[in-house]
Design brief:
30% helix, five-stranded antiparallel beta sheet, alpha+beta, 130 residues
């Protein structure tokens, strides 16, 4: 009876283990090069401090989590600014900031960091857990 339960758990881990590990920051399995193509070049990652509009949402985040950062404009459609960004750090809440959101540090490619800075200057940013 116990061995059957262990077999079920092992099967579940084998099927969902990679996705569960990736959602908490574990490195994804290495990508396979396209048939006849070379492996993609390494992307330089940088730390990007980002102010998220909802401080309560930021308190749910932990280093290693993966998030999508969404720019929410009042008059226009929402857009994803960064997909699958890794949370590097969640600084302690700032005192006396009110509803000014909360800071989170993300590990993203340099180009994405520029996009985040630009979007954060003109819109409110939100995150969804991946």
């Amino acid at each position: 009876m116990a061995s059957a339960g262990l077999a079920v758990v092992a099967a579940a881990l084998a099927v969902g283990g990679t996705e569960a590990q990736a959602s908490r920051g574990a490195a994804p399995p290495p990508a396979r090069a396209a048939q006849g193509g070379a492996a993609p070049a390494a992307v330089r990652m940088v730390s990007a401090p980002v102010r998220i509009a909802d401080a309560a949402t930021v308190r749910l985040l932990r280093p290693g989590d993966r998030v999508d950062v969404v720019a929410a404009e009042r008059a226009g459609p929402t857009r994803v600014v960064a997909a699958g960004a890794r949370v590097a750090e969640v600084p302690p809440p700032e005192q006396g900031v009110g509803d000014g959101g909360a800071l989170v540090v993300l590990s993203v490619p340099r180009d994405t960091a520029r996009d985040l800075v630009g979007a954060g200057a003109v819109t409110r940013l939100a995150v969804t857990l991946c």
